[in-house]
Amino acid sequence: MNILREVASGLLKMFVGDAWLTLGVLSVVLLTGLLTGSGAVRPLLGGAILFFGCIAVLLASVAFHGRRHRDR
Predict the structure, then answer these.
(1) What are the pLDDT digits (tens) for 39-54?
(2) How far apart are CA 21 and CA 36, in angstroms?
(3) Has residue 36 been placed in a domain?
(4) Residue ranges in the chain assigned as alpha helix (H)
(5) Which of 9, 27, 32, 64 is the most core-located residue (most Cβ within 10 A)?
(6) How many domains does the chain have?
(7) Cα separations (Å) of 9 from 21, 26, 59?
């Protein structure tokens, strides 16, 4: 039971560690799911939106944190 608690704790820390990154990725996933589920975009295009959206959120997060640490 301790192992499950430690794994759950590790996963929670991983997702909550950077709140802006988490919110950005969740918003990209939500937007892609809504667009694909409603039929507004085809699933292949939805996959591309998901991939490039997550990459954009990741790069924005790295750039933001890089600037913040460089200014110290």
Answers:
(1) 999 999 999 999 999 9
(2) 22
(3) yes
(4) 2-16, 19-37, 43-70
(5) 32
(6) 1
(7) 18, 20, 26
